[in-house]
Amino acid sequence: MAGISWHYVFKFIITGDAAVGKSSLLIRLTDQRFLANPDPTLGVEFGSKLITIPEENKVVKLQCWDTAGTESFRSITRSYYRGAAGCLLVYDVTSRKSFLNARTWLADVRQHADPHLTCILVGNKVDLCDPEQDAEQSSEHTRTVSASSSKNPKRQVSLEEAELFAKEEGLLFVESSAKSGLNVDQAFEQAARDILEKIHRGAFDDDQSPGVKLSKPATQNNSLSLDSAKSRASCCSS
Ligand SMILES: Nc1nc2c(ncn2[C@@H]2O[C@H](COP(=O)(O)OP(=O)(O)OP(=O)(O)O)[C@@H](O)[C@H]2O)c(=O)[nH]1
Ligand SMILES: [Mg+2]
């Protein structure tokens, strides 16, 4: 194991409308900071981070392509979707439009990314919502499923509506705040765990899946594949 700095590399993309906080989520992940006035992304930006999945004793390198939400960059950003294993599909909980547009982003991503793509829907800027009003709204929701909040002027997408959309589309889901850091690392980790599970089930293939790479230390021969990782994981996991 000596010399291994990571066991897997996963290609991630971050997508969604302009100004929903995609770059802010990436900066929070990689630098643990928040910029009040970041520049809009022109095309794509890149960031990477090593994360540990303790229960698997594995180190995963996340290679993240943060794409521009502005329509004029759409054809450029699309080309970065190719082969992605993970996707953060971001909307802003205070912008209903950004939530409605998530469907279009998802369709685009599914067309170009790996067919086994793991996608997590991320409702960002939850720090702008009043938690007390949220709790009140949530209890009312058991009776009436409303699309948006009339009581909380900032929140325009309820937790329940987003959860339902995620369930229907087979997405993971979390609400986050790049500003406070709430659930930012967790969003990436949850998606990485899901990809690892898919690897163990044999869904990703080391040669066929450009968005997933397995470390090949010099001491082992080049036949090491995701299949062997799968069998090693299953033999050691009981
Ligand atoms: N309150 C709050 N503001 C946020 C949060 N995340 C981002 N912002 C702010 O939202 C604005 C847009 O953030 P960006 O990270 O540039 O958004 P983006 O999705 O990368 O935008 P594009 O690159 O243009 O597609 C900035 O003013 C951020 O400071 C958050 O969690 N809470
Ligand atoms: Mg950006």
UniProtKB/TrEMBL annotation:
Q: Which InterPro entries match?
A: P-loop_NTPase, Rab_GTPases_membrane_traffic, Small_GTP-bd, Small_GTPase
Q: Which GO terms describe its molecular function?
A: GTP binding; GTPase activity
What domain of life? Eukaryota
Could you tell me which residues belong to the region Disordered?
Answer: 132-154, 202-238
Q: Quote the biased-composition stretches of kind Polar residues, using this chain's numbering.
A: 217-228
> In this record, what's one Pfam family?
Ras
Q: Which family does it belong to?
A: Belongs to the small GTPase superfamily. Rab family.
Record protein name field? Ras-domain-containing protein
